[in-house]
Design brief:
The protein is an alpha/beta fold. The chain has a domain of 132 residues: Aspartate Aminotransferase, domain 1 (Alpha-Beta Complex), CATH 3.90.1150. Helices cover 36% and strands 15% of the residues. It has 13 helices and twelve strands. A seven-stranded mixed β-sheet has the order 1-7-6-5-4-2-3, with helices on both faces. Strand 4, helix 7 and strand 5 form a beta-alpha-beta unit. The longest helix has 20 residues. It binds pyridoxal-5'-phosphate. The site of pyridoxal-5'-phosphate (PLP) has 12 residues, from helix 4.
């Protein structure tokens, strides 16, 4: 400690604290990686300033371009899914938007599956449309519908498995075959998969097909769901296997300033080691609930890819080892009004009404079927669909909750 005769000024104290020479000894090894927070990163000299490269992760230049903490999360996510590069975004939807903004330009055509995540459709219809990018839709359960919807201007096709809300599981390898054959004739068409449901655990999107001959070009994840696992974080990721494609996305990512909060990165890093176990627990509980729902006379149809008879069950069986924690049930519009179904939803106690999924708390959300689908058996059907996101509570307690709520459906 330095002794002083005169009290130092406040600004001297500030300078002393800002330039404090102490450095903790190296070699500290904790269970979780350290959290480095930065906007500014300092350079030791101008030579370092001029030579340091952020794009290939050999150095640090600015918080937005990466920190040791974001690099660690990116590497772990890439490994999980068999990808090579990862970009982090402030939400799953921001990751989806990044893909569209990076890879499409005026005059291009985009294709979305009928059961795409709703806000992804809105992004295309509103944001991409005003930049001169047209959007079409295809039936994800029919590769011929995709073949018919592709045009010489199509540059990007989104895939989703299982589909949002209605949970159909498509023939991904079949759809990719259609995209690759079209590409061979009309130039590059990229295949992007929203793999939030699979979470890098249920199947390998970069190695689909009997010999792994088909793979998507990129995947997007809402890390908001299973990777974070707490229902308290918003974050997204774009995973690629091709360096040139990654660089295209990365430059747009940088220009758009898509930073993520380092406290949130820490939370996702904390969630990842337990994700496979949590995913298996959500999965096991949801399968039990889906089977139970199938026996309920009030429910016209249960939608869950691991359930025989659910749309795309055979495709799920051929490519997946897990089935996540979502199950939907259809209430026939001729038997139950939406007000009656709302009463059922309101009667639930453990299932809380809320968007999203992948956290410990079970959630429920009702959707009107009218106008929801333009292809398949649900198209034009009246009625209500209720989606359950099964959390980590005791399955018996969740079944009892559903049982008592069905009594409100009279
Ligand atoms: C399939 C799917 N993709 C993407 C998202 C978007 O994730 P976020 O809420 O982090 O924007 C969601 C959110 O519900 C989703 O269900």
């Amino acid at each position: 400690m330095t002794s002083r005769t005169q009290p130092r000024s406040l600004s001297e104290a500030a300078t002393e604290l800002i330039h404090h020479p102490y450095e903790a000894p190296g070699g500290f090894q904790s269970v979780q990686p350290g959290v480095f927070k930065a906007s500014t990163v300092v350079f030791e000299d101008t030579a370092a300033l001029r030579s340091r490269e952020w794009k290939d992760k050999t150095g640090y230049t600015y918080g937005l371009h990466g920190t040791p903490t974001t690099f660690v999360l990116e590497e772990r996510l890439a490994t999980l899914e068999g990808g090579r590069q990862v970009l982090l975004a402030p939400s799953g939807l921001a990751a989806i938007a990044l893909v569209g903004q990076s890879l499409l330009k005026a005059g291009d055509h985009l294709l979305l599956p009928d059961n795409v995540y709703g806000p992804s459709r809105d992004f295309a219809r509103h944001e991409l449309a005003q930049w001169g990018i047209a959007t079409g839709f295809y039936d994800p359960m029919d590769p011929a519908s995709l073949a018919a919807a592709l045009t010489p201007d199509t540059r990007l096709v989104w895939l989703e498995a299982a589909g949002s809300v209605t949970l159909e599981f498509p023939d991904l390898a079949g759809l990719l075959g259609v995209i690759r054959r079209h590409s061979a004739q009309h130039g590059e068409v990229l295949a992007a998969l929203d793999n939030t449901w699979g979470a890098g655990l249920a199947f390998n999107p970069f190695d689909l097909g009997a010999q792994g001959e088909h793979g998507v070009d990129l995947t997007v994840h809402a890390l908001t769901k299973y990777p974070s696992g707490g229902g308290d974080v918003l974050m997204g990721a774009v995973v690629t296997r091709d360096e040139a494609l990654h660089l295209r996305l990365k430059l747009t990512h940088m220009r758009l300033g898509l930073g993520v909060g380092l406290n949130d990165v820490e939370l996702v890093l904390r969630g990842l080691p337990s994700m496979a176990l949590r995913y298996a627990a959500h999965d096991a509980s949801t399968r039990q609930i889906a089977a139970w729902l199938q026996g309920r006379p009030e429910v016209a149809q249960v939608l869950h890819p691991a359930l025989p008879g659910s749309p795309g069950h055979a495709h799920w069986q051929a490519s997946c080892s897990g089935a996540a924690g979502l199950v939907s049930m259809v209430f026939d519009g001729a038997r139950f009004t939406s007000a009656q179904v709302d009463a059922f939803v309101d009667a639930l106690r453990l299932f809380k009404i809320g968007y999203s999924w992948g956290g410990p708390l079970s959630l429920v959300m009702p959707y009107g079927l009218q106008g929801m689908r333009r292809f398949g058996p649900l198209a034009g059907q009246p009625g209500t669909l209720v989606r359950l996101a099964v959390g980590l509570e005791d399955t018996g307690a969740l079944l009892a909750d559903l049982g008592q709520a069905f009594e409100a459906l009279v």
